[in-house]
Amino acid sequence: MKFQIEEVTVYFPYDNIYPEQYSYMVELKRALDAKGHALLEMPTGTGKTIALLSLITSYSLSKPSNPPKLLYCTRTVHEMEKTLAELRRLHSYQVSLLGTSANYLALGLSSRKNLCINPSVVSTESRDSVDAACRKLTASWVRALAMENPNVKTCEFYENYEKVGSEAILPPGVYTLADLKVFGKEKGWCPYFLARHMVQYANVVVYSYQYLLDPKVAAIISKEMQRESVVVFDEAHNIDNVCIEALSVSVRRQTLEGASRNLSRMAQEIDRFKATDAGRLRAEYNRLVDGLAQRGNLPITDTWLSNPALPDDILKEAVPGNIRRAEHFLSHLRRLVQYLKGRLQTENVEKEGLVAFVASIYTQVGIDQKMLRFCYDRLHSLMLTLEITDTDEFLHIQTICDFATLVGTYTRGFSIIIEPFDERMPHIPDPVIQLCCHDASLAIKPVFDRFQSVVITSGTLSPIDLYPRLLNFNPVVSHSFKMSLTRDCICPMVLTRGSDQLPVSTKFDMRSDPGVVRNYGRLLLEMVSVVPDGVVCFFVSYSYMDGIVNSWNETGILKEIMQQKLVFIETPDVVETTLALDNYRRACDCGRGAVFFSVARGKVAEGIDFDSHYGRLVIMFGVPFQYTLSRILLARLEYLRETFQIKEGDFLTFDALRQAAQCVGRVIRSKADYGMMIFADKRYSRHDKRSKLPGWILSHLRDAHLNLSTDMAVHIAREFLRKMAQPYDKAGGSGRKTLLSQEDLEKMMTNGNIQEMLF
Amino acid sequence: MNSSKRKRSNGDGDEDEDYEEEDEANGGCLQAWERAYADDRSWESLQGDESSLLRPIDNKAMYHAQYRRRIRSSPSTFRIQKGLIPYLYIVVDLSTAASEMDFKPSRMALQKNVEAFIREFFDQNPRGQLGLVFVKDGVAQCLTELGGSPDSHIKALMGKLECSGEASLQNALELVHDYLKQVPSYGHREFLILYSAPSTRDPEDIMETIQQCKKSKIRCSVVGLSSEIFICKHLCQETGGLYSIALDESHLKELLLEHAPPPPAMAEFAIPSLIKMGFPQRAAEGVVSICSCHREPKVGGGYTCPRCKARVCELPTECCICGLTLVSSPHLARSYHHLFPVTLFSEVSPSYLSTLQLRIPKNCFGCQQSLLNPGNKPGLFVACPKCSQYFCLDCDIYIHGSLHNCPGCESLRHSKPVIDAEELKFAAAGNQISTAVSPSAAAQ
Q: Region annotation Disordered: residue ranges (chain B) (predicted)?
């Protein structure tokens, strides 16, 4: 269908549209018109992605003179593929209506691991080893060697690509990663470098968060994107954590030992070069005198992750004199590693600000802030000079230099925390130096500054006023949309009491109470005998899950549960969890029924959907607060209070509730689906906790369901399941339309009552 | 009054929400026994009429709308071929879940609904056969073999049954599959299970069993007592059956009875085939003879098989001696309407008629009652598209549900030779009642 939003004709590839999709587009259009940032919350399963894509592409089609580019950031490769599949459908629809004038280029960009088609390279396992293997074949000096000596191996795909040079272009269309590979194989071009080249010309680029947020990657990939781009962060409820992780480094003993090994290997290399080719080192020295601005002239294959700090700060200055010579730089690094080793010896937990830390480095080993700041680039330059291609071996020293550069660049928003052992396992010595970033706005600031419109969207962004404060920006539009439903297909419940009417909670002083453990067990037991197919349980942490499952096992509750359904458990091991999930799905398919025990903030809670019969019920045992005694969290809370005036309690509750919402949101993935959600903790009935849940859950949380005990919940569950199993009318009854056709929309617009439909 | 009215009309969303919340809060405080009545607050729908007598709100129109929706969605409105000789196995789930008390008095006690279903089934499918199976302790057992008489099944069902163990859908399917394999190809193989467990405990891969059933053309339907289970849905989708979940006691009965009319014929079996059938004569009163089915001497009543002269007690049945299917002609006639359903009447709204300047009819053609509501306001009524006679809503339901003839069209038939055309079509439709052994022919 196609319709008009103000002056823009929107092409929408489906015959019907949900009212909330329409209002989403209207809000988004306002943000684009205002050239500002937007913060939009819309529940999952309402077609957020297609609404976004179709509005933005239609918007750029309506402005043929200067079409804005769309940079779409997803969290996982799987989501990237899904987005591109939607986009392909949209694109073919637009082309069928408009002809070739609607043609544009859209592609996905991912790491070498996902794009490489050279069989000898892609067979290695990890991402870093694929990168290194690629460099071994494509680095400029390797290729130069290969010119003289035909025995030196190179990558034929890259050679072919390089031969065509800038002639190599993708015809317009939508390319998923698989399509890029197929295209690459057909032409014999390297898909990775082709994609990186085409990113400059593409109208839509779908890639991972890191390409924009991590300064190391962003400087290479996203540097040349024009200002008129629209940046979208999808599923962005955890964007502050991503930002923080991008600027945090932790150093362990293994890292330091590895770094020492790397340093001695580099020293050998330097000696070798001195004997054979002293001119190279000399040339490097001269280049460094001129400053680091040479970066842009490097051939594309030689670039690698650039400076972890903000790009602008570094390039203007020249490398300080005392680390220009390779030997001097190495000895500086050696001293730094030695110093860090010394700090790791500590017996007690230490917490330091960056200024004090830098001062202590200066007094003890004589390395000043400026030298620290240039570590990363200097190392990069040195490794190029030494022609080191197996970069995966040198990760340790890179981590150290990364650390040093961050320490040297920032003075605020960070702290150094040294812990001799993990709080939860005090017997095992595992010393670690953590450089923790507390300020999510640091990493995302360049994105907000550089691009005119940044859209942050997710199914759960509540409370929506906190994100602008955390990320330190001013959205022109911030809106939370509700879901229009033909029937009440979600049934959230707050369970405060067990079957014996005593309160249940995972509060610290109550969680090990046998009564609470038993009540939780009885709750699950009653539920599994009522709910068919799949039930998902979320616990607050691995240790709590282990404890409670153990005591259920001892009291025999677990055995009774297993009478009803098979039990699967998430573990920190990815392979084991995948296997468990697979078997869980099979048990649901064949009617045996299954329970999945999972952990809030775990991998399952973030990325796995339990739609339709895979998740008829999700039980959230307790409120998933972060581990509040963690030093990193405490330091961050302190920083938030001082800098942004966000109270500790507010932030913790916000964080816990968004995790809980994320967990329970796993069960409902479309409007035809239905599912129940039980929040099993008495604290959820308090208004300050509950009100932080997203609106689409709150609007279905009836007052009668706020203070339930187990038997009442079972009764409600029975009735709900029966009601939902009845056939229903998908388009919505007479009263409120939940599916609009083109005529409906036009009628609404002519009548001018469009506002009634919007919330 | 005035102010409150204005408030209502001006009232924004907040206010309305407040009202709703209040209601919901009240709903939440209800006791469990009260909740059963929360949906139909019949006392609230009372209203006084002119003479200040209480009378219930006229919800006839609402019921009628529901009924029409059902009749429109059911395939019986189209003239499709029906499988007239179903062989049905009813499987009753007697696992521990069946002893739940959420249906009053308990799920198991609802088996009296099955009794009503069995009677209805034989009423609608006089030549159908039915057998009972139950599942408990993870195994399926046969309660009664396929048979044509309702009484023996009902007797077996009324016996003492106890719930225990798990339910296994696969075992039930396999057992029924084995039984139904032997059914002749003109018969329609049907499987209906009353399922109350929330899961199934199967020995092997149930997907294979489902494929087997699909291959053997067994149409599987499930009536659930608890909640929707994926595997049951899958089973019904694969084999073309119906899947429904009962909300309460009366809904369960309704759902069960939906399975009584003959199912649509499967395309592979649409070829006409001949079935031998006998139409026995009723024996004279006062004659003492030994009935062949019960092996007891009986006085009067009973029927005599036209081929072997054996005495049977009731129809329809199969002769115990020569195996001939014995029916009476009303039985055949009763299945006739499944082939030629009465066309759906169209709704007529009085306002539409008045715009067309047509005379508004006063009386229903069926019952001759006035079509006008009390207060002489014209109500909703329907018209037959063929004979354009008007009927009231009650008659509409009666004509489509029980009578299966349109009185208007029937009275027209005397003047026009519609009947012949109908009969010709009947023969040409390739249905399974192609011939019948008349008593005299069989005697020769």
A: 1-27
